[in-house]
Amino acid sequence: MKIILLKDVPKLGKKFDIKNASDGHALNLLIPQGLAIIATADAVKRVELEKKQEEAKKKIHEELLAENLKGLSEVTLTIVAKANPKGHLFAGLHADAIATELQKQTRLQVDPSFIQIKQPIKEVGEHILEVKAAGKSVKFKLVIAKA
To answer: Total domain count for the chain?
Structure first.
């Protein structure tokens, strides 16, 4: 049975792919869970239109992100956090907290998944962080001050 995938399905395909699946797999799992629809002529036309619209949205989003990244290179973000006398933070700073503070201070929206940190930051001082998105990367300075 020919189906059109509405979401990425592991070991089968990506969203908007037209695939052949066994009748049982399609009728009992994929279609009832909203992962696929039967590939009729009308459905194929509709999915092609949706695919073009989604690609256009993605292109616009990448352009906006590229503009945001240009302004980010000159930013010095300052965060005040509680720390012990030796300069160790009581709670590590994650990418989510950094992205939220970045939006508050600079009005630049950066998705937390684009901020490249291997582990939460737990030290007071200056840190250089990198933001990677849309094939581009920009570094900015993060200053953590003791409260």
So the answer is: 2
Tokens at 79, concatenated: 């965060």
- Single-letter residue type at 94: H
Read off the tokens for 42: 């009308």
Q: Chain-centre distance of CA 95, in angstroms?
A: 12
Distance between CA atoms of residues 9 and 75, nearest Å: 40
What are the tokens at 73?
């290179």
3-state secondary structure of 46: helix
Instruction: Give pLDDT tens digits along the chain (147 positions).
Output: 999 999 999 999 999 999 999 999 999 999 999 999 999 999 999 999 999 998 898 888 777 777 777 778 888 999 999 999 999 999 999 999 999 998 898 888 788 888 899 899 999 999 999 988 777 888 999 999 988
Residues spanned by the domain of 127: 69-146
